[in-house]
User: What shape does this take?
Amino acid sequence: MKVVRRIADLRLGSADVGLVPTMGALHEGHRALFRAARTENDVVVGSLFVNPAQFDEHADLERYPRDERRDGELASQAGADILFAPTVDEMYPAGFATSVEVLGLSERLEGVSRGGEHFRGVSTVVTKLLGMAQPHVAYFGQKDAQQLVVIRRLVADLNLPVRVQACPTVRERDGLAMSSRNARLAPAERSRAVALSEALRAAAQRAGEGERSAEALLDVALAAMLARDVQPEYLELVDPETLHPCEQLTREALLAVAARVGETRLIDNAILRPSAASTEATQTNYTPHEERLPRKAIA
Ligand code: AMP
Assistant: This one.
């Protein structure tokens, strides 16, 4: 695997490129994205960039784990051909003045909690990475469900010639969604952190039993969280495309949650389906977000 630091050195010619954008501190969730990219592309590019523009808390940026050597080894083992690891100056040179903002979608859920800059930072850096690597397919985790919705919108709105591929959330054995931030949890916090996935599972189970009222489903989820002494920052049942709150589970809906466990902020989500349409939610608890755009690669 080659490590590239300069945009000018990312010469990929006409090969079919799969791009996996990451901020490093790679875990099994990232590796699943690389493996998916490996099966579908000639060249797999992983980007490793802790993007200052998307951090709303300076301390979070400072504390973000960085170990390029380890990340390089993991990315290479999972199938990356190129690790693009630019400096902040390479990404944002003097005079940089443009930002990409997806209105509406960016203002809900995480946007309320973290402020508008977060998704502005994400949208801008992803647009730049897509321009630099010019991939046919870009891979993102369902773990960051709102990020996926925002990226799909910007790719459609800006007519970017790339397919956005969602990959299912990879979890620890007890259900906790893998995240670079999990390492910060003290042992007692780690046991409580399972509150988020337990809340999703409780609501999915109740939906599987036939409950359609959002209020009732959210009550069940909230009770599961409070049982672990974890208070949600938000816990919402929303339309998976518009992110508007749903009152009834009449079709697929996204149950999204964020909570702090100690100092560590965690997010998670699940797709719920009304039981008459499918019993999958009760069987798997966590159903992957399905690909919504045509699967064909756009030349
Ligand atoms: P990050 O390095 O946290 O910016 O994440 C890079 C990519 O990995 C994003 O598309 C995330 O959604 C994805 N990702 C992070 N955690 C997981 C996980 N547990 N399962 C699947 N994908 C994940």
Summary: Confidence is low (pLDDT under 50) at residues 277-299. The longest strand covers residues 253-261. The radius of gyration is 19 Å. Residues 52 and 61 are 7 Å apart (CA to CA).
